[in-house]
Structure formats: structure tokens, C-alpha cells
Amino acid sequence: MKKDLIKIIKKAGNILKEGFYTDKNITFKAKKDLVTQFDVAVEKYLKKKFSKRFKEFNIIAEESDNSNIEFNNSIIIDPIDGTTNFVNGVPHTAISVGVYKNKKPYLAIVYNPILDELYTAKIGKGAFLNGKKLKVSHEDNFQKALLATGFPYTSGTDENDLNDVVKKIKDVLPLCQDLRRLGSASLDLCYVAKGTYEGYYEMNLKPWDVSAGVLILTEAGGIVSNISGGEYNLFEDKYLVASNGKIHNEFIKNLNL
């Protein structure tokens, strides 16, 4: 299944890459939430190929109506994670596909065709970037940790969310090495998996943002939790917290100051 997934996703990556370098028709799903014709085209291509090739799985996808789809044996698609980057020519954008069996992660692919980065993972088999095995950072000193975060679309409409984002930055930034905000949750998780970041946190993520990245990170030796340190639920938790595992307890503590 993994080989077939990669083949299909790489072909869909050609659509993303073509769109990255051409004019886009941009519409807004919300005040800050963009969508382009290329998001729709990539998703349509993936759904068509996956539904034909992997009939035992249903499909949950960002630009589709998922109201009548039960999460269980599911393929979760983000056709372009980092659409704002995609629109503005920032090469931190990717196709994210997470495969779940009985609601548990099974396979994960995150593909950035602009930088030619293919992140893959299978449960119990490790995580890889372009075939090279990934391993999280060994850094255990929080003051030396490079962290990543993201800002929710609701920051433009929900003052409580905006205040919470600002508070956590104010609490955490003095205690770590620095913070990065590159705008693609799937890739941020992959960057923790390959040891670029020691940790990453964000609020209001959707299942398609992180369905692949969480497996890639855990297979590289990292940890994913909610903000209380418990098991992260794709559909329910407000915050995702991810790390190399070595700073996780202190990370959780500092996010809850």
C-alpha cells in the first residue's frame, strides 16, 4: 500500500508544483482561511485514485463534506497544507496523507514537491525522509530547544484564542532557544521528527493538518500529546504538543504557566 500511496501522491505533487509557480484563484472559507483551485484539484485527484485503489478505506478530506463519514478505517487528506505559503510563494507547503486502521495511525506520507522532500512512516517501521531514517534531536535542555508554533485562523475573530496565543509565546519564548512559525503543521511535525526542532505546539488544528505528521514524529522517537500531557485526539483536543520526548514534561509545564 505504501508504494502505491507514494506513487499517487507524487503525481498529485505535480499539480501542487504547477500551481505554486502560476496564478491562483483565491477564495476565503473564513477571514484568514484561504483555498485555491489547486487545493481542490489535488484533493479531487487523490480522492479519485484512493477510492479506486483502496476500497477498504473511506476518505476524510479538507475541502470535502465529511459530515456523513465515520472515522475508523480512513485515509485523511490535506491536499495543500500551508495554503497561505502556497499562495504567497513560500516553499513550506505539502500534501499530507494519513492512513488509519481502527482509528489508529498505520501509514503516513508528507510530500513537499517544491523542496523535493518526501517524509514517510509505517507503524512500527520507522520514519524516513527521501529514504533516509529520521531520528529526533537529543537535546534535553529546554533553554537550548528550538521550538515551532502556529497561529490559528481564529486569531482574527476570537479574542480569547488570540490572547491565549500571545500569552503562551510570552511564557515560553524567554525559556527556550527561540520560536519559529513557518505555517504548515504537517511539516512542523516532520521537522521535529528530523531533529530540526525540539518541539512544536499549536491550537485549533484539524485532523488533516496532523494525521500524517503525528505518526512520522512518533516513529522517529518523538512524543505527541495534548496540552495536559495525555493522549492527543485528532478530533477533540484544543492543543497539540509535540517534542523529541526529552523536553516534553518541561514543555507541557511551560505551556501551562
TrEMBL record:
The protein's name: Inositol-1-monophosphatase
Reaction equations catalysed: a myo-inositol phosphate + H2O = myo-inositol + phosphate
Pfam families on file: Inositol_P (PF00459)
Nucleotide-binding found in the keyword field: no
Enzyme category, top tier: hydrolase
GO biological-process terms attached to the record: inositol metabolic process; phosphatidylinositol phosphate biosynthetic process; signal transduction
PANTHER family given in the database record: INOSITOL MONOPHOSPHATASE, INOSITOL-1-MONOPHOSPHATASE-RELATED
Lineage summary: Bacteria, Pseudomonadati, Campylobacterota, Epsilonproteobacteria, Campylobacterales
Organism: Arcobacter suis CECT 7833
Entry cofactors: Mg(2+)
